[in-house]
Specification:
It contains eight helices and ten strands. Strands 1, 2, 3, 4, 5, 7, 8 and 9 form an eight-stranded mixed β-sheet that branches. Helix 4 links the parallel strand 3 and strand 4. The C terminus is likely disordered.
């Protein structure tokens, strides 16, 4: 039996609404952000991100969400899709660390930049040092920071071994780490790759694939916080890696061709 798919009209309608919503986001950033503090920014970002997910018929299923967030907090999550960013921002708004390529995306890059995204060129050690300083300052200011330490996307059926460099600013700022495990499911509850942004898949193809699904559910499982004052960086990296792999029930593998295809142009 073939799986349910939306009609072409539904897909086109969703994508049209998505484009309009992106321009709405640019208007909000230009019109309202200059008058607001970071709390005001986060309120808009959270609401706008939730509306984006609703347009694409993506529902969040929060598990063990913190009743109160630590003053200095870094979210550590696995990476499956460009949608991950908006899932996290709709759940717990803050500042994302992303690959510098995203800044060059037409229209979307302007929006992602406007909400304060921190860009990093991972291949440059000097840029990693610069970014670590920016992350530490952001954490010390009281804003949440989210990172995807796998360094690229997967289909979600494995977890790539985490890179540790971006954990250092959390240690330096004595921040709390909150591991978050993301899983995408279809309308029947089965795992789905519809939202995966892996290999040579273009952003347009990915959006079309998501719009083809009648509904998508994203499990957002918040693990117990980890204090950076109680372990060294290496131990913290392995602890985050372990708890996320356990929540997802997947194996941790080396970052190689056995786990992913080729890194897409916009992956974090």
């Amino acid at each position: 039996m073939s799986r349910p798919r939306t009609s072409r009209l539904t897909r086109v309608t969703r994508i049209t609404r998505l484009v309009v919503h992106i321009f709405k986001g640019l208007y909000i950033c230009a019109r309202h952000f200059p008058k607001l503090d970071y709390n005001g920014h986060d309120d808009h970002i959270q609401r706008w991100s939730g509306e984006l997910l609703s347009i694409l018929s993506i529902r969040l299923n929060h598990q063990n969400a913190p009743a109160q967030w630590p003053e200095r907090c870094m979210i550590v999550t696995n990476h499956i899709s460009w949608v991950d960013v908006f899932v996290i921002l709709a759940s717990s708004p803050g500042v994302f660390v992303a690959k510098s390529d995203i800044a060059g995306w037409p229209v979307v890059g302007k929006l992602v930049s406007a909400v304060g995204t921190l860009y990093i060129a991972r291949e440059k050690k000097s840029d990693v040092r610069r970014m670590n300083e920016r992350i530490r300052e952001t954490l010390q200011s009281g804003r949440r920071v989210a990172i995807c330490p796998e360094g690229t996307t997967t289909h979600g059926d494995t977890l790539l071994r985490f890179h540790g460099a971006l954990f250092q600013p959390a240690v330096d700022a004595e921040a709390t780490l909150v591991p978050v495990a993301l899983r995408y499911r279809d309308m029947h509850g089965a795992p789905t790759r519809a939202a995966s942004y892996v290999g040579e898949v273009s952003l347009v193809s990915s959006v079309w694939s998501i719009a083809t699904e009648p509904h998508i559910v994203v499990d957002v499982h918040f693990a117990d916080p980890l204090l950076t004052t109680e372990s060294d960086r290496r131990a913290l990296v392995r602890a985050c890696e372990s708890v996320i792999s356990q929540r997802l029930g997947v194996e941790v593998v080396a970052n190689g061709l056995d786990a992913v295809l080729n890194r897409p142009a916009g992956s974090q």
